[in-house]
UniProtKB/TrEMBL annotation:
Main localization category: cytoplasm
Annotated organism of origin: Paenibacillus favisporus
SMART domains: DHDPS
Entry superkingdom: Bacteria
Function noted in UniProt: Catalyzes the condensation of (S)-aspartate-beta-semialdehyde [(S)-ASA] and pyruvate to 4-hydroxy-tetrahydrodipicolinate (HTPA).
GN (gene name): dapA
Location(s), subcellular: Cytoplasm
Any GO MF annotation of the entry: 4-hydroxy-tetrahydrodipicolinate synthase activity
Phylogenetic classification of the source organism: Bacteria, Bacillati, Bacillota, Bacilli, Bacillales
Binding site for pyruvate: T47, V204
Name used for this protein in its record: 4-hydroxy-tetrahydrodipicolinate synthase
Site annotation Part of a proton relay during catalysis: residues: T46, Y109
Secretion signal span: none
Length: 295
């Protein structure tokens, strides 16, 4: 399974009552594929506000995305949680709905050790025929997936990739030690190009919602040996990479990118509690950031 070089972790559009806005979800999928050139979409990942989506909403979103994308891009379902049994259940239901793969986050809050992490991911992977992408994000889960455990999991045939939000050192070590079928993706937009320089295959992006086409140009330049051009594009895009997470005060994802999308005419709504939208200063910062894209 080739998920491509640029994967966008899609926001979940909400209406004014906080319900999933299906009309805008369809428009957003089209926009991300056609305008921003996403090769795969993660549905119901962290950026999709998975912690506050019900199981019913998740399954309907998986089905809707598969039906609407119509093969134009791959659909990766966020089915991981801190419950192995529930993750297996959701993964198997997603498989029935026709998704192309699943994204499995490191279990949060219950703080398993490395052997527990291995057995968690092994059990889910062996319960499905779908390709599995691991998701290591220690900043959100507290516990991180070690290089050694990642490489051990990479020996399972349908564990095909990892979305890595730890250090470039870990990206380097995984890329160097993994089997040929296993791909490393940067889960940090700002580290995307540096990660590719040390062996990553691509990027799972938040910024891809608004600068995906430019990110694809950056990736293409790098792959074609135009490193100086790739570096220039990275430098140009870097304020957006950082600004979507580090406005005047750190703003939890996806509050900033949803606000930016609304400014650009995509009615994706706000975020669900306990997340909140930007305050006045944060909103002004995001408005300047979006304005800079048209200059």
């Amino acid at each position: 399974m080739d998920f491509g070089r640029l994967i966008t972790a899609m926001v979940t559009p909400f209406d004014e009552q906080g319900n999933v806005n299906w009309t805008e979800t369809a428009k957003l999928i089209d926009y991300l594929i056609e305008d921003q050139r996403s090769e795969s979409l993660v549905v119901c990942g962290t950026t999709g506000e998975s912690p506050t989506l019900t199981e019913e909403e998740k399954l309907k979103l998986f089905e809707f995305a598969v039906d609407h994308a119509k093969g134009r891009c791959k659909i990766i379902a966020g089915t991981g949680s801190n419950s192995t049994a529930h993750s297996i259940h959701l993964t198997q239901e997603a498989e029935k709905l026709g998704v192309d793969g699943v994204l499995l986050v490191v279990p949060y809050y219950n703080k398993p050790n490395q052997e527990g992490l291995y057995r968690h991911f092994e059990a889910i992977a062996r319960s499905t025929k779908l390709p599995v992408m691991l998701y290591n994000v220690p900043g959100r889960t507290v516990v991180g997936l070690s290089t050694e455990t990642t490489l051990r999991l990479a020996e399972i045939p349908n564990v095909v990739a990892t979305k890595e939000c730890a250090s470039l050192e870990q990206v380097t070590q995984i890329a160097a030690g993994a089997p040929a079928h296993f791909r490393v993706y940067s889960g940090d937009d700002a580290a995307g190009l540096p990660a590719m320089a040390v062996g990553a295959y691509g990027i799972v992006s938040v910024a891809g919602h608004i600068i995906g086409a430019s990110m694809k140009d950056m990736i293409t330049a790098y792959l074609e040996g135009e490193q100086a051009q790739a570096a220039r594009l990275h430098q140009k895009l870097f304020p957006v990479f950082k600004g979507l997470f580090e406005s005047p005060t750190p703003l939890p994802n996806p509050a900033a990118v949803k606000y930016a999308l609304n400014l650009l005419g995509h009615s994706v709504g706000g975020v669900r509690l306990p997340l909140i939208g930007p305050n006045e200063k944060e909103a002004e910062f995001i408005e300047r950031l979006v304005h800079s894209l048209t200059e």
